[in-house]
Amino acid sequence: MTFQRARTEEQREVRRRAILETTSAMLDEMPVAEVTLNELSRRVGLAKTAVLRYFESREAVLLDLMDDRTATWLAGLEQELGRGVDPSRPPEERAEQTADVLSRSLAAQTVLCDLYGAQGGVLEHNVSVEVVRRHKRASLRNLAVMAGLVRRYLPEVDGHAEQLCLTALLVAGALSAYTSPPPSLLAVYESEPALAVHRIELRPALRLAIITSLVGLLPRP
């Protein structure tokens, strides 16, 4: 892929989208930690300095991509909750159904979980105030959408929905770092099965965290 110099806002937006789509494709092949500007610029067909005209750093690209991927995931989550949660059931059952859907859906988003895992310690560094402001505004919009979906099926959580959703996203990010053990760790687990208690499966661990939070928020009879 090669580009002529962008001279209009429309052309600049085409370049931005190409950079984001190329980064997204890279993340389907490698973890966030292995994405570099050099490889990104090579794949997108732009010089590294040209990429930096559209995004001020690698982290800025990844933050924008995280916001985009979150919005795309939430569009599908609405349908998943509609299929998986029965509004006619008691609150405790709806809480379990909601935890089932959220954990299954989030665990399937391995790239998104990786991005959330890197957010606080990596991605929100090496970026300007304006980039962080734009990212946080996008995050708030996405969080409001997610909280609204949860309230639709669990109105009992009411004003705690945003905090519940934020916790679920951050826990998914934190847990995801432990769900793909390196070969040396797998060898240890195989040779000493008692140590495999430390091995984490993302979906059940995430479901436990979400259902624990949900049950704690339900009003007591």
UniProtKB/TrEMBL annotation:
Pfam families found in the cross-reference section: TetR_C_34 (PF17929), TetR_N (PF00440)
InterPro entries tied to this protein: Homeodomain-like_sf (IPR009057), HTH-type_TetR-like_transc_reg (IPR050109), HTH_TetR (IPR001647), TetR_C_34 (IPR041483)
DNA-binding region residue numbers: 36-55
GO MF entries: DNA-binding transcription factor activity; transcription cis-regulatory region binding
Protein keywords: DNA-binding
Origin: domain of life: Bacteria
HTH tetR-type domain residues: 13-73
Gene3D superfamilies membership: Tetracycline Repressor, domain 2
Protein name: TetR family transcriptional regulator
Organism of this sequence: Amycolatopsis rifamycinica
